[in-house]
Amino acid sequence: MSAYGYDAVVIGGGVSGIMASLTLASRGFKTALVSRGDPVCCLSTGCIDVFSHSDEPLGGIRALLPDHPYSLVGEKGIVDSLSFFLEIMGEAGLPYEGDPGRNRKILTPIGSTKNTCLVPRTMAHADMPPGEYLHVISFQGIKDFFPSYITSRHRNSTYSVYDAGVPTTLGIAARFDDASFLDAFITWLRGLEIPLDRVALPAVLGTIDPDSVMEKISRAIGRKVFEIPTLPPSVPGLRLFRALKRVMQNRGIHLYWGKGVTSVECQGRTVEAVTLATTGRAKRVQGRAFVLATGSFVSGGLFAGRDSVRETVFDLPVAAPGERKDWFNTDFFSGAHGIERAGVRVDRDFRPVGAKIDNLFACGSILAECEIMSLQCGHGLAVATGVAAAKSCAQELS
Amino acid sequence: MTTFEHCVRCTLCVENCPVFKVNPAFPGPKQAGPDAQRFRLDGERSVDDWVKLCCQCQRCEVACPYGVNVSEIILKAQLKYSREHMSPFTAHLFANTYHLGKLGALAAPITNAVTSSGAARKVMGVLGLATNLPMPEYRFLTLNRGRRRKGKRRSSRKVVFFHGCYLGFNRPDIGRGIRDLLAGLGCRVAIPRQTCCGLPALGNSDLEIAKKFARKNARMLVEYIDRGYQVVYACTSCGLTLVHDYPEVLELPEGRKIAENTYNVHEVILDLLENDGCSVEFGEVDRTIAYHIPCHLKALGIGYPAAGIFEKVPGLKITVLDDHCCGLAGSYGFKKKNQQTAEKLGTIAASAIKALEPDALISDCGACRMQLGHYTGLPALDPSEVIIASLEKGASKKSRGKRRIP
User: Fold this and answer.
1) What does DSSP assign to residue A294?
2) DSSP per residue over B149-181, as a string?
3) Could you tell me if B52 and B74 are in contact, meaning their C-beta atoms sit under 8 angstroms apart?
4) Residue to substitute from B8, B15, B252, B310, interface A, most A β-carbons within 10 A
5) Chain A nearest CA to B276, separation (Å)
6) Which regions in chain B score pLDDT beneath 50?
7) Which of residues 13-32 of B touch A (CB under 8 A)?
8) How far is it, in rounded angstroms, from Cα B64 to Cα A37?
9) How deeply is B252 buried, as exposed, middle or buried, from its count of CB atoms within 10 A (0-12, 13-18, 19+)?
10) pLDDT value at position B96?
């Protein structure tokens, strides 16, 4: 059976693919997004790191080598794409805060702080001025969240533990969706009579409307409240993904979820369709232009063999540093590993260099030289290049 | 080929598990699936009774970016557990929903009166059935009675309609609507005698009964496929059973052939409209509707074809909701031990729907409609009902227009 024809087909359901598809849909193109599963952003802190390696994201980006994908987008492009992201999150009912000109801090479960750029409202108060007092709330039996890690690093801090009746972050978050559970929690919290300035909890303040949960708690105790992202499963990461997905669906983007691309149909230098490994029978999705946003190694966009790196959907040429011995540093924490620079090289229009395909654009962490681990720029790069690649794709389509 | 060994323990499946979210007794798909699978040896008696708490929504499998067959691993562990332990009475009862349906429909008015009576509900409670939900009503004029074939061959398309038990016994009116819709779009529609797809038996861990049902259907469907028919389904759980379980779990020799020739009814309709040059006029339907995506439509991976049709209906405001399992999961929620889980999930899914303030909800799955109709108090429709309403309006507008010309 021949398929529904789209203007654009985006391959990859992470932040980059989603931002690309939203950009295309906002320009009136009939867009489909195919993804072989849920994206890595569900496991993330939910924060948008634009360039967390330094305190000033844009300043840090200016100092990058010219072959970093950020240079293809340019400063204005980066700032515009981040405001587009903020607008989307507002529409989704999960507003984010932050300024591309200046990084802010969030607290981590081991008590350290981390630079990031845009944060969900529930983490807005995590950037504490020095000298303020903090009270940490933990939950009975919760895994990988030990408040004493935090109190041992912050002299002015104490903690208490609440029994939510379930030990998992998701289980607790689902309980916070329930008003009667929240009321009981607030009653307990008021009973503590916390004299300190701020109250921090692991990120479990509900899966549906965390902002109202936080505000209700904050009002009841008269203190600023914020969330600390947890290890996976990560509730703020899940909220971010679900919110983005909601906007995609509201804007009429068709989603094909859970099955990877098994084959590609080309006519000359044009991709015409991709085939999905659908249950039972392969599903064909055809489009006039394609955006590749399948991510790097973890997400399966790139695959490292013994001696070479391969791109998994179109078998595009991949730039990888030298031989295998150049891929890794002997000291794991010593900074950038060579393999982080592996990826698909693109031209100014985000077309893969050396590909024999004209209607294909690439974005996100599959791009060469992005070094998202050491520069800490994952989501920011995803947003900026996703929007930029989609703009080029839109030009091709019109 | 991916196995439990390919799991990297990223927990994306856990994030998507509805049961894990509300029932602390279930350790989640990662542990119930790939983690525990390493300890499940042939000849070693299963001790993981919590594996039966999985409702087989398959959201874990959809979420898994590594293609691990999480829910299939769990299903097979459920089957293994049941082979080694006595099944409760309710499992035998629900494995045979087809026979219940046949009996129920034959004596429809009596069945419906009995299942809704107070005394009967007390008995149900004793037998281990959940009593908070109304039981589905049965209809005497089932789809198996009446015309078997409809439509002249205007397009080259011949389809055999696999309607399943719910449309067959409980809502034959919807089944007839779909038959007429396909025929109206130019298909030749056959509705042969058919039995249960076998999913209720699988869900209640009765592999033998499931195979018996499946073999019967497979013989019948292959005969049609060989004569150039495409199989269409409307119930997405029946559909998933045909395309996934027939070849993969029940290992039927005809399984692959059936899977390759089976389509969702809305895929077929969309294809007729987009590519077969079927000219129809969609009339205005001025409604705000929440479209609850059944878990098994998600699991099919074919996208949401009905949503593509709704886009053509002027005035219709549809919001797609695909983050929640309704909690009923076939017979799962009708069991007393799952009652709380089903109730909590039903409430969560219902509040997501009600937040949109719609005037109705749509779902492709009869069980979702029962559950969410109950928890939202809204009319719960099959997608075809809205499509037909729009086409009827469009057709009447067209004929009025024609009358005006002379």
Assistant:
1) -
2) EE---SSS-EEEEE-HHIIIII-HHHHHHHHHH
3) no
4) B15
5) 10
6) 402-406
7) 14-16, 20-22, 24, 28
8) 5
9) buried
10) 82
pLDDT at B397: 72
Q: Which of A174, A195, A228 is the last residue of a domain?
A: A228
- Give me the residue label for tokens 């607790």: A172
Q: Using an 8 Å Cβ cutoff, are B63 and B12 in contact?
A: yes
pLDDT of residue B274: 86
Domain holding A173, by residue range, is 109-228
Nearest residue to B40 via CA among B8, B68, B80: B80
Looking at chain A, the whole-number percentage of residues with pLDDT higher than 70 is: 99
CATH number assigned to the domain with residue range B280-391, chosen from the 4 options 3.40.1350, 3.30.70, 3.40.50, 3.30.160: 3.40.50
Residue A242 has its nearest CB partner, among B61, B300, B323, at: B323
Q: Which two tokens stand for residue A8?
A: 């654009």
pLDDT in tens, A42-80: 999 999 999 998 889 999 999 988 899 999 999 999 999
Residues of chain A below pLDDT 50: 2
- Interface with chain B: mutation pick from A279, A294, A312, highest number of B CBs within 10 Å: A279
- B369-B371-B372 Cα angle (round to 5): 65
Residues of A in contact with B322 (CB under 8 A): 249
> What pLDDT does residue B44 have?
85
Domain B4-84 has CATH 1.10.1060.10: yes
